[in-house]
């Protein structure tokens, strides 16, 4: 029988120094528009799956896809110019 102590040690073994660095948090902040655009795309896809397909759902999905791609292009251009890591 495994003791809970071994599991607890693995869970609590993380030290405060394992937190994200400022550079990692800045990178996340820089990518936040793309993350939110991806969330909108997933929401649109889920909404389209939950109901009978309608033209409004298709438009919403296309709009969300275009927004996600546009934000990715902006991030790629920033990275190409040396603004992002």
TrEMBL record:
A Pfam short name: DUF6284
Domain of life: Bacteria
Protein name: Uncharacterized protein
Organismal lineage: Bacteria, Bacillati, Actinomycetota, Actinomycetes, Kitasatosporales
